[in-house]
Specification:
There is one protein chain. Helix content is about 75%, strand content about 0%. It has ten helices and no strands. The radius of gyration is 22 Å and the shape is elongated. It starts with 19 loop residues before the first helix and ends in a 6-residue tail after the last helix. The N terminus is likely disordered.
Length: about 270
């Protein structure tokens, strides 16, 4: 009797779970799950953490950051030339508006990634308990060291997001890049933060590797959609939990399909 290893049963990329149908199904199920009272209540924790973080960051760093940015802006020859031209033309001073915008672009994403990290580490287990118990009750939990893996993943993704965001801020001065870079970095944060947390409690390390490899494009497409939704300020309230629900449904559905594909040859 031969039991094939998980690596030997990766199906073609055309599997429905990897395509638009699987992603649409995950969003539909997540929307239904989000309307449950438990999940509505779960929205409060990451939102309050992000809000408190934003208030503290603005209170502690807004004035010194603005003063530092004004000093740095005074050293930028191109900015000074454009600013002098705009003032001479009777328009407005570019630096008066540019400095607060840059300060907000630095501080607010920090509070946002903090809320997402809190959702990944503390709220995602509640999401998995709710989703797993109701729709994937037969799916055995084979994950190991789930909490440690989740915390480490949230830490390095948050640091990578923060470093990448700050390093690419100068490119925001090129008009289309502000939106493109914002969408890219939030897609990175959603994908790398939540695709692992969605399956870490149920999937074994070998299964996690297969699922991430097989469904990588699907996970990234979900992250891109969530990142685009993130451009709408009202979505900030529910997005940390809602995106977790989408990833949970997509990841657990993919894991369920993976285990159904295992066969025993007699």
């Amino acid at each position: 009797m031969t039991v094939p290893r998980p690596e030997s049963i990766i199906p073609p990329a055309g599997n429905a779970a990897t395509g638009a149908a699987g992603i649409a199904r995950a969003f539909k199920r997540a929307l239904v799950s989000q309307c449950h009272p438990n999940m509505l209540f779960a929205v409060l924790l990451p939102f309050l953490i992000a809000l408190l973080g934003a208030i503290l960051l603005l209170w502690l760093f807004w004035t010194p950051l603005n003063e530092w940015l004004r000093f740095e802006a005074s050293q930028w020859q191109t900015i000074n030339q454009v600013d002098d031209w705009m003032v001479a033309a009777g328009l407005f001073s570019l630096k008066i508006y540019l400095v607060p915008v840059i300060a907000a672009a630095i501080l607010l994403p920090i509070s946002g990634i903090l809320g997402l990290a809190i959702a990944a580490v503390f709220v995602m287990p509640l999401v998995l308990r709710h989703v797993g118990g109701r729709e994937y009750a037969g799916l055995a939990r084979q994950g190991r060291n789930a909490t440690a893996v989740s915390v480490w993943n949230a830490l390095w993704v948050s640091l990578a997001f923060g470093a990448g965001w700050l390093l690419t801020l100068p490119f925001w001065l090129i008009p289309p890049m502000a939106v493109i870079l914002s969408v890219f970095w939030w897609a990175f944060a959603f994908t790398r933060m939540l695709r692992l947390d969605a399956i870490v409690e149920h999937a074994s390390p070998a299964e996690r590797a297969i699922l991430i490899k097989r469904h990588n494009s699907g996970f990234w497409l979900i992250g891109l959609i969530c990142s685009l939704l993130n451009l709408l300020p009202p979505a900030w309230i529910i997005l940390p939990v809602f995106s977790g629900l989408v990833y949970a449904h997509y990841g657990l559905d993919a894991l369920q399909r993976l285990r159904q594909e295992r066969t025993i040859d007699v």
